[in-house]
Design a protein that fits this description.
Helix content is 32%, strand content 20%. By secondary structure, it is an alpha/beta fold. It has two domains: 208 residues, Leucine Aminopeptidase, subunit E, domain 1, CATH 3.40.220.10; 323 residues, Zn peptidases (Aminopeptidase), CATH 3.40.630.10.
């Protein structure tokens, strides 16, 4: 390759301080290329620009601290591209090292499209390379690196105006598809002025696997897209404000969502008359302070008529409080707007069943979703009130802001009666602020009496990139929720708030294969906190939808039986 002049070298070295580095490469001689650095803003790119993401990692020779660190291209296509366009020589003159979270845009290499080299990081890394790196938590590091690399590359290309993007599958098409699809998400449905949202959105961008001709690769990619789209669905439901997503409209949207799955999915919407007829007074009491009617939504997925008679379905119970003001025990105004997402558990259940139905996974999955608003009014539940649950136990309401456990206890009692031999019963809820204090956005708190079931939950998280942390269900916590005037009370004091909430739920389920997932900490990522996952933007996260999809597949797999 021709030598680069000292002046050109200085220009390339100065590119380290430029936020965006774009190199226009032109062939001048048969024996090599002359590299001409050209810096310009993304706004000057063609709006119909095509883009390609190529995964790279630091070479085995050299270290990540070496300024001239060599890089390895992950796939055969990447290696061919690197050889054709002398990419390693270009990279040597930049500060790009192939670390996780790094990307290097190169313009004009392939069909006048924008090429982005996206770093996977070193496989044996034991130190943080970027925000969101997972260390010593069992997460599949290779899958997570691929998700991050795909997402970082796609975000860069979208920023530069690309609408047609090909992504290097990097040896795992499903993981690459997940990262790429999750990266495109941005909630903008309620914005009317174009300057108020990004140039390209997920509806404008077409993403496909690069050079993927094998059927197995395409199937794996499609599966990853479904996983990510269903998490994005949960994110959208959580982002919708409470004046748009009421209990009734949640049911209507869900029914419309499953219209294309009429052969395998059945939705049943229950009204207040049905709720009171079932003796679900705890659920009814929480919602009676709002003008919005309380609802109960049942979703049933059966992959085939044979599975419809299975007596051991997988049951998900999702908390569906579409807005939680706290009721008479009203919340502080700070961050109360986020309580539109107090139906995050319900959103996750819809996302999981949508994915299972889209994949045509074998088995029978049930979703039970109690829906209401928790509002203060003359009809609202008061502190000190005693309510009778569907199971017959009475609960003293000491704090009306501890409403999630009240609506879940009736739903769990219903599940316990209808599906006593369920393969597993899993409740998902943004239940307690105490869980956010304990674990933050780092992990979902998992309360599970069955070690075997928790193992499957944890394994699912490792595969999907979510952390779970097992929390205690000691009998000790039952003593904290004893009431002087009723069987139990809905709060157990300041100590162990998340544990006493889970302890209350245990009184309404007899199935030993029961798990309660408190997702309060992983619900949202603020602009100040950032996201734990680099491929998830700020806002509602939709976690842990992908883990629960993996869980459903594992629980119905032929290789392992969970009974």
């Amino acid at each position: 390759m021709n030598s680069v002049s000292g002046e050109l070298t200085n220009l390339l070295e100065s590119s380290r301080t430029v936020p965006m580095r774009v190199f226009v490469v032109s062939r001048l001689k048969k024996r090599g290329f002359q590299i001409l650095p050209c810096f310009f803003s993304s706004s000057r790119l063609n709006v119909d620009q095509k883009g390609t993401v190529i995964g790279v990692k630091p070479s085995e020779v050299g270290t990540s601290d070496d300024a001239d660190c060599q890089i390895d291209f992950f796939t055969k296509f990447g290696k061919k591209l690197a050889k054709t366009f002398f990419l390693e020589d270009i990279v040597k003159r930049t500060n790009f090292k192939g670390l996780k979270g790094q990307c290097l845009p190169l313009y004009g290499l392939r069909d006048s499209s924008l090429l982005v080299l996206s770093g996977l990081g070193k496989e044996d890394s034991t130190t943080f390379e970027c925000v969101g790196d997972y260390i010593d938590d069992g997460i599949n590091q290779l899958k997570e690196s691929i998700r991050v690399a795909a997402s970082v590359g796609v975000k860069q290309l979208m920023k530069d105006g690309c609408t047609v993007i090909e992504v290097d599958t990097m040896g795992d098409p499903a993981a690459a598809a997940e990262g790429a699809t999750l990266a495109t998400y941005h909630f903008h449905q309620l914005k009317t002025l174009k300057q108020n949202y990004s140039k390209n959105t997920m509806e404008d961008v077409r993403i496909s696997p690069l050079n993927a001709h094998e059927e197995v690769c395409l199937q794996s990619w499609s599966k990853g897209v479904i996983y990510a789209e269903c998490q994005n669905l949960a994110r959208t439901l959580m982002e919708l404000p409470a004046n748009i997503l009421t209990p009734s409209s949640f049911c209507e949207r869900t029914v419309q969502l499953f219209n294309n799955f009429s052969d395998s999915v059945r939705c049943s919407i229950r009204d207040e008359e049905w709720i009171r007829g079932q003796g679900m007074e705890a659920l009814y009491t929480v919602g009676k302070g709002s003008i919005e009617p309380t609802m109960f939504l049942e979703i049933e997925y059966c992959s085939s008529p044979e599975h419809a008679v299975l007596q051991d379905p997988l049951v998900f119970v999702g908390k569906g409080v579409t807005f939680d003001s706290g009721g008479i025990s009203i919340k502080p105004s700070s961050r109360m707007e986020q309580m539109k997402a107090d139906m995050g558990g319900a959103a996750c259940v819809v996302g999981v069943i949508k994915a299972v139905a889209s994949l045509g996974a074998p088995g029978r999955v049930i979703g039970l979703i109690p829906l209401c608003e928790n509002m203060p009014s003359g009809d609202a539940c008061r502190p000190g009130d005693v309510v009778r649950t569907r199971k017959g136990l009475t609960i003293e309401v000491e704090n009306t802001d501890a409403e999630g456990r009240l609506i879940l206890c009736d739903a769990l009692s219903y599940a316990d009666e209808l599906y006593p031999d369920a393969r597993a019963v899993i409740s998902i809820a943004t239940l307690t602020g105490a869980m956010d204090v304990a674990l933050g956005a780092g992990a979902t708190g998992a309360f599970c009496a069955s070690r075997l079931l928790y193992t499957v939950i944890e394994e699912s998280g490792h595969e999907a990139g979510d952390r779970f942390w097992r929390m205690p269900l000691f009998r000790h916590y039952q003593a904290q929720i004893k009431s002087d005037v009723a069987d139990i009370k809905n709060v157990g004091g300041r100590s162990a708030g998340a544990c006493t909430a889970a302890a209350l739920l245990q009184n309404f389920i007899s199935n030993k294969r029961f798990a309660h997932l408190d997702i309060a900490g992983v619900m949202h990522a603020s602009p100040f906190e950032g996201s734990v996952c680099p491929y998830l933007s700020r806002g509602m996260q939709g976690r842990p939808v992908r883990s629960l999809i993996v869980l459903a597949e594992k629980l119905f797999s032929k290789e392992r039986v969970y009974k």
